[in-house]
Design a protein that fits this description.
The chain is α/β, with parallel strands linked by helices and 356 residues long. The protein is built from 16 helices and nine strands. The strands form two sheets. It has a seven-stranded parallel beta sheet.
């Protein structure tokens, strides 16, 4: 498959097909650089805090009308060029019966970590019936969004494995890496099982109407290129290949992955997300031709005065000037204490500066 024959170029012509976001994913000329923000629907918005009040995170992900409202909030407020489905990367694990919860201030916590071959048997296949609330919510969303694309998403096999094996968030991933190095066959089987679960979760979202999907390998930056290529890339590649037939753009993102950008592109994405540590022109060199890039303003820049924020955004746009396709985003998610008005202004600034 050549660079100009990526699955994104075979995308079905829907109401969102000619949106700036999908054009950028396909590396086509755009009316302006499209903008969306990771974690744009969330704690930075007072309207989000109001509707989520008293509702646990995982429960909120299972209420279609609430998911719809939360997903739409940043589109209304910020005029972003795409919505991202409100959920959490551990939702499919919860749906297949893994005993886990999202603890406030901590993150996902797994009651019984997966560390043996016997534990692997607990990871059954995910069916559409397990996540019927996702199908319902995306149906509601696509009717409301009209020509605005909806991005579906899932956690990548490595990041899901890191939570399952560690039992929760980790800075060192010692248990996950111990399995990866010490029992590579069990590790490969675990990632294959998670690749199948992730694929099923993405297929549900695409078939319900998502216009693009993003695979979050949030913690892949903890790996060396050698370990990533040998022990992680094959499973992520299986996910991308399995959804290629739908023809929707596939985005791949991780944090601290500057040394892995080329490999992340190799995994099969149409768009590679870049965090703030690598300028986009250098990221393009590392990724190689045939891919659009997404990113990559430092999320803390929005706390600076408007003039300084604009100057840093201009640096990102200048670095992206020669790219085949560019989607403006932060280099990671919106921080909870972010002033929403700063994000609204940032969207307007990028749109104005890049209008063609």
């Amino acid at each position: 498959m050549s660079a100009n024959q990526t699955p994104a170029s075979r995308q079905p012509q829907t109401a969102t097909y000619d949106s700036a976001f999908l054009k950028a994913c396909r590396r086509e000329p755009v009316p302006h650089t499209p903008v969306w923000f990771m974690r744009q629907a969330g704690r930075s918005l007072p309207e989000y805090r109001k509707v989520r009040e008293g509702i646990p995170m995982l429960e909120s992900c299972m209420r279609p009308e609430l998911v719809t409202e939360i997903t739409l909030q940043p589109v209304r407020r910020h005029n972003v060029d795409a919505a991202i489905y409100f959920s959490d990367i551990v939702v499919p694990l919860k749906a297949i019966g893994i005993d886990l919860d999202i603890k406030p201030g901590i993150g996902p916590v797994v009651e019984r970590p997966v560390r043996t071959r016997e534990d692997l048997a607990r990871l059954r296949d995910l069916t559409p019936e397990d996540v019927s609330y996702v199908t319902e919510a995306i149906g509601l969303l696509t009717r409301e969004l009209g020509a605005t694309p909806l991005i579906g998403f899932a956690g990548a096999p490595f990041t899901l494995a890191s939570y399952l094996v560690e039992g929760g968030p980790s800075r060192t991933y010692e248990n996950a890496k111990a399995m990866m190095y010490g029992d590579p066959e069990l590790w490969a089987d675990l990632l294959d099982r998670l690749a199948a679960i992730t694929t099923a979760f993405l297929k549900v979202q695409i078939e319900a109407g998502a216009s693009a999907v993003q695979l979050f390998d949030s913690w892949a930056g903890a790996l060396s290129p050698v370990d990533y290529r040998r022990s992680v890339l094959p499973a992520s590649a299986k996910v991308f290949e399995a959804v290629a037939e739908y023809g929707v753009p596939r985005i791949h993102f991780g944090v601290g992955t500057g040394e892995l950008l080329g490999l992340m592109g190799e995994a099969g994405a149409d768009v590679v997300g870049v965090d703030w540590r690598v300028p986009l022109d250098e990221a393009a060199r590392r990724v190689g031709p045939g891919k659009a890039l997404q990113g990559n303003l430092d999320p803390t820049v929005v706390f600076a005065p408007r003039q300084a924020m604009e100057a840093k955004a201009r640096e990102v746009l200048d670095a992206a000037a020669g790219l085949e396709g560019h989607i403006f985003n932060l280099g990671h998610g919106v921080m909870p204490s972010t002033d929403p008005d700063a994000l609204t202004h940032l969207v307007e600034y990028v749109h104005t500066q890049t209008a063609r």
